[in-house]
Design brief:
The chain is α+β, with helices and mostly antiparallel strands and 112 residues long. The chain is built from five helices and five strands, in the order H-H-E-H-E-E-H-E-E-H. Strands 1-4-5 form a three-stranded antiparallel β-sheet.
């Protein structure tokens, strides 16, 4: 179900700082196609969250334990790891697009 632009923006403009912060968790995405199974992400993660799966690729099993330090993303030689930020409206967008989204007002990747 698609929401109108005013419905989408109302959640972000609710002036509820507590509500916004509660929903600003990041989700770690590991692109299985780009992942070469080197294990660097598991080595640099302070909690060893990335784990090798049966295909020899890495995935994050316990997202809730992530402290969002981005060590895995910064050290991945294949740029297979992306931290997506969930904004107050609940939409996900690639954190790497943060700068271009702010400078490009015609960008339709996010409702905010």
């Amino acid at each position: 179900m698609e929401m109108s632009n005013s419905e989408n923006q109302s959640c972000c403009n609710s002036n509820s700082k507590k509500s916004f912060l509660k929903n600003s968790k990041k989700k770690i995405m590991i692109d299985e196609i780009k992942c070469i199974g080197c294990g660097i992400c598991e080595e640099v993660c302070p909690f060893g969250l990335p784990k090798e799966n049966s295909k020899g690729k890495y995935e994050i099993i316990k997202q809730e334990l992530c402290v969002e330090c981005s060590a895995c993303e910064r050290n991945c030689p294949e740029q297979a790891i992306i931290l997506e930020e969930q904004k107050g409206c609940g939409c996900l967008w690639d954190a790497r697009q943060r700068h271009s989204d702010k400078t490009n007002t015609n960008n339709k990747n996010c409702c905010c």
